[in-house]
Amino acid sequence: MTTLLWLQASGCGGCTMSLLCAESPGLPDLLADAGIRLLWHPALSVETGAEARAILDDVAEGRVALDILCVEGAIARGPGGTGRFQMLSGTGHSLMHWTERLAAKARHVVAVGTCAAYGGVTAAGGNPTDAVGLQYDGAHPGGLLGAGWRSLSGGPVINVAGCPTHPGWVTETLLLLAAGEVPALDGYARPRFYADHLVHHGCPKNEFYEYKASARELSEIGCMMENLGCIGTQAVGDCNIRPWNGEGSCTRGGYPCINCTAPQFEDPAHAFVDTPKIAGIPVGLPTDMPKAWFMALASLSKAATPERIGANAKSDRVVVPPTLRKPR
User: What CATH number belongs to 2-194?
Assistant: First the structure.
């Protein structure tokens, strides 16, 4: 039996809401089938008050073994490094205190969502609460636990980043850990099973992207990279390969990818739906593509854009259907 304890720190709770959308199987069946015992979750467990405090104390004192500690939300270290901006009610201690104490007892520690991983939206702007991720402060190693911190298994914090993170990314990580395997991690400690993909992979707007047939407004169905801030060609994630609920993703819903799996995505220095340009050229080019190659490809693609694709890109629906070809 694998034990799991979940803390919710400074965040919106959206990653738990996303996790509840796990399907085939749903979350309760998945945990039961994998032999994962949920010791406590502040939003899903029935234990409250003294019962919840007893569970936390038992784990912290080593009376109950903890295999996986999941933390959702950034850690508020303020004011003045006390962590008292967010207290765990009834315990007299901050979430910062409990996170540090329980992390020391866990075989594996998982940061669920970009806030827990890097600070995320909670750390945006002036960051008055001094919020950080578990092992990163933005893109910089450090955070609450420090760059050199390691769990009892010898590994760093596993950053299942996303805002909210995909339920499949969380459940796949938990299943691997329960089976005695640790997922391979990328340079920001994100599981490579999703971080080796780009949001661009499987995007329904890829035909428009290939011809640089661009939407000008959010209601249009063309590629959103050129004018509407989409950076799916740079953002890691398999969102369009295994969409939410089998159907949804940001780009499938007509909204640009904002790279929510990355550190500091929350402060892009421009509106999320604007594409920064220099001399009409987007500043953020696709991953691994030199600027000269992109310019040459874009010019050729636009010159070769079929009428169907050019017309549909600037419409809110398909107005020109594919050409019908008679069989030979």
Answer: 3.40.50.700
